[in-house]
Amino acid sequence: xxxxxxxxxxxxxxxxxxxxxxxxxxxxxxxxxxxxxxxxxxxxxxxxxxxxxxxxxxxxxxxxxxxxxxxxxxxxxxxxxxxxxxxxxxxxxxxxxxxxxxxxxxxxxxxxxxxxxxxxxxxxxxxxxxxxxxxxxxxxxxxxxxxxxxxxxxxxxxxxxxxxxxxxxxxxxxxxxxxxxxxxxxxxxxxxxxxxxxxxxxxxxxxxxxxxxxxxxxxxxxxxxxxxxxxxxxxxxxxxxxxxxxxxxxxxxxxxxxxxxxxxxxxxxxxxxxxxxxxxxxxxxxxxxxxxxxxxxxxxxxxxxxxxxxxxxxxxxxxxxxxxxxxxxxxxxxxxxxxxxxx
Length: 343
Hints:
single chain, alpha+beta, 2 domains, six-stranded mixed beta sheet, four-stranded mixed beta sheet, 12 strands, globular
């Protein structure tokens, strides 16, 4: 089908759908969309690209792909403490996808389902032919001066993470045949890989509490490393606290698969695609952080502390240093070099 028929059938957004987003003055249909942040608010903008074979497998469920394409951008807004305003979609499609109405309907369905859940309307974009490539730019707003930046961590701050770590990497491993696990565990891990939950409510609740924040897209060690470099500080993480963020650990204990502490620790530290939040906050804010987590129905765990000595260190249950390779996923590394094994 032609470009304009494709847009009309699968990506046209009725004008009334923008009514829930007062920040959108003009959506799809003109040369540019027009956004108007509320008084006293500033814009937060993020762009992410998903490339077939690099960020997702060719046979991925298109509904899940539509969900994830937007979720990874919303996760960036969450890390800044921003609220969504709208997004644009640039989509390159090979001929077999452009003429597959079922695939397009499923993809756009997953995309718009998440967009509606977070009041984030599609406000523009572009389509073209080519290898499957999805590029989304999301726009958000937040009170001026309240952004959760990466450069605010201070010596003595606690290090927290939301949700669970490593499950998405486990899901990728099962798809790639790296290990065999019971069906229930595989299904749970694959769900975390393909349908991540952007922590927008938690990010908003952390305004004024967190001193620094980032989303965990390329592994805890790597993304915490961004905070440390921006803040001019170092950190010490507790291995046991990190292992306790792996909910599948309890399920593993019920199977014949032995719980390999070193392997799972590596997965939690360097596995990508978790899209959780890693943030820092003063010890005096511990109760407030827990309250914020409870009010947003999100679990959080304290996994370390910010130190003056540069670098990232890990201690075991006995408080002794624990060695590990703190590498984040590198999009320009080979699959063999990548800590997550992504291709």
